[in-house]
């Protein structure tokens, strides 16, 4: 991939840019932000680390939307972050207005790009971005599940004492309190996680996963999470840039899968150079279907406010 643009030079955007550049996933990374000097300063800071990390990726930044020109992938992290005690839905109105402006800029300057949404509430805003672009559904997708499974894997490692390198977790549903951690589809070096976890441990892991972002925010007070979200972004970018066709939980537009239509929600999908290449349908049991439907209903409630 030649050029990746990240709109939003806050902590998530800057950290993602650094990781993408450091791993040389593309030739050029552009940071864009409405704050004068914010993107340019972040880009310069990242660039000055290149001699130590050994990367040649060119990193630039600025305020002019024309910098998006010829982007192969545009990542949107810009928006108002939530504060302690707020849900992701609480920032919907202000972030929808932000997204409208940014989508129009993408349509003008990078009409052939893939679009990755990170801004919360990401399930709702991914649907909104897809509608506003009019693009095919595989080109517009969101980051949520990749972050949620990294949190779930962390908590599984804490509970079991096993190496996190061997842990593979799965989460479906909306990126919020109604997400559905899927212990039944999570493994530890191929062994079902339920082999090592009792019901008490599973309940603790599920609760911490559902409130993973809020836990970080409550501890930090003045900053939401950014290291893990940036790592999740980089994981998705790597799958796209290298056409790995990885199965990752992404915010996807459903068109009949899981019995749902006209909704964007977190489900496992094959992610490659064309974006979402296929939604993977898991055989859900009754409890999982009930939890997933509750998550869908929560997203549809928010969609009514658009």
Task: Please tell me about this protein's structure.
It contains ten helices and 14 strands. It has helices at 11-22, 38-47, 50-53, 92-109, 122-133, 145-160, 199-210, 212-220, 227-241, 286-303, and strands at 3-7, 28-32, 58-62, 73-76, 114-117, 140-142, 167-168, 171-172, 180-181, 187-188, 191-192, 246-255, 261-272, 275-279. The chain is globular. Strands 3-2-1-4-5-6 form a six-stranded parallel beta sheet, with helices on both faces. The protein has a three-stranded antiparallel beta sheet with strand order 7-10-11, covered by helices on one side. The chain has a three-stranded antiparallel beta sheet with strand order 12-13-14. The chain has two domains: 3-142, 3-Layer(aba) Sandwich (Rossmann fold), CATH 3.40.50; 145-303, L-2-Hydroxyisocaproate Dehydrogenase, Chain A, domain 2, CATH 3.90.110. By secondary structure, it is α/β, with parallel strands linked by helices. β13 and β14 (275-279) form a beta hairpin. The model has no long low-confidence stretch (mean pLDDT 95).
């Amino acid at each position: 991939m030649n050029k990746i643009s990240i709109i939003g030079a806050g902590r998530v955007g800057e950290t993602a840019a650094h990781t993408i550049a450091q791993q040389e996933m593309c030739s050029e990374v552009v940071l864009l932000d409405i704050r004068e000097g914010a993107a340019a300063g972040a880009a310069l800071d990242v660039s000055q680390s290149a001699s130590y990390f050994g990367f040649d990726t060119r990193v630039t930044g600025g305020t002019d939307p024309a910098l998006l020109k010829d982007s192969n992938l545009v990542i949107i992290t810009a928006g108002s972050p939530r504060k302690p005690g707020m849900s992701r839905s609480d920032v919907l109105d202000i972030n929808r207005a932000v997204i409208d402006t940014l989508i129009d800029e993408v349509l003008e300057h990078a009409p052939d790009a893939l679009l990755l949404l990170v801004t919360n509430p990401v399930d709702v805003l991914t649907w909104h971005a897809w509608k506003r672009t009019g693009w095919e559904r595989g080109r517009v997708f969101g980051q949520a599940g990749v972050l949620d499974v990294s949190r779930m894997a962390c908590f599984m490692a804490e509970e079991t004492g096993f190496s996190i390198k061997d842990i593979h977790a799965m989460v479906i549903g909306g990126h919020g309190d109604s997400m559905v951690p899927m212990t039944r589809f999570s493994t530890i070096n191929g062994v079902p996680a339920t082999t090592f976890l009792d019901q008490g441990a599973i309940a603790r892991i599920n609760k911490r996963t559902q409130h993973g972002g809020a836990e970080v925010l409550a501890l930090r007070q003045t900053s939401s999470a950014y290291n893990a979200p940036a790592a999740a972004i980089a994981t998705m970018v790597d799958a796209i840039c290298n056409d790995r066709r990885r199965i990752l939980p992404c915010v996807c537009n459903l068109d009949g899968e899981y019995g749902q239509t006209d909704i964007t929600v977190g489900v496992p999908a094959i992610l490659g150079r064309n974006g979402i290449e296929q939604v993977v349908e898991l055989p859900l049991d009754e409890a999982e279907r009930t939890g997933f439907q509750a998550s869908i209903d929560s997203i549809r409630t928010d969609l009514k406010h658009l």
